[in-house]
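This is your field. Have a critical look at the following sequence-structure pair:

***
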Amino acid sequence: MNVSQSTAQYVSLITQVADDLCQGEGFELVHVEMVTWNRQTIIRIYVDKPGGINLDECADISRQLGDLLDVQLPDMGSYRLEISSPGPYRPLKKKQDFQRFKGSQIKIETRTAIQGRKKFTGILEQIQEDAVVIEVDGEQVEIPDQQIYKANLTGR
């Protein structure tokens, strides 16, 4: 990886390229992450579509995206590209994700404590303009969007 660009810059560029490809192929780009493990750069791309994505589709996206990244980001250096489904613990990133999974059980981690805690697991009840409401142990908890550090489905 070229030291002149930060990981965040690469993730942003990779996200743009991957999102364009996914839209063209009828897939949804769910999440992009770039990690280093054993001194190797790993780019993980999570994609989905209604009804789920299969292994052949992941392989096809991997081939196409690998070629695009090699051409559009030649200074990135060597990397391993992994394409997969977001699975049952799918991350919730965009407002549309929360709308789509209203009524599902989710887990949210907040940046600062709300009602004395930072981790909440419950049913996604409402999606407001600048917050979500989940039912936790029979109580409704409103969590402002800017406080959401991490949110995902629980797999139930």
Notes: Helices lie at 7-25, 55-72, 95-100. The mean pLDDT is 91.
